[in-house]
Amino acid sequence: MTLIELLIAVAIVGILAAIAIPGYQSYTMSANRTDATQSMTLDAQALERCYSQTFTYAGCATAPAGAAQSHQGFYTITIAVPIATSYTITAVPAKAPQTGDSACQQFTLNSAGQQGATNSAGAANTQTCWGST
Known about the structure:
Elements: H1 3-54, E1 66-69, E2 75-83, E3 86-93, E4 106-110, E5 115-118, H2 126-130
Antiparallel strand pairs: 1-2, 2-3, 3-4, 4-5
């Protein structure tokens, strides 16, 4: 193998890496969004279970109000119970690579089942962030 052939092979590998790495990073961020949606859905289920037994969202031991890490730790999940008959769950990125996910910077889910999401500019981006739900 000559030096020119080796340089051509290295150039081809470099071009392929330049194409593949950004696509992989985008896929990873997209896949990690399920950490937020899954954690929020499980917290909502716990709150609804508590409400069906006590008729209040306040004081629910299985999903207490406040901030906690998501199951995989990519997001900070905050449960707010402003009044005893409603709640809002919010998720924001807590660690890389999700902190660089400008398409989905905040997820929300409320007691009415309304899903929401915003991008880094503050514009609604629910369909992209929550998927096809």
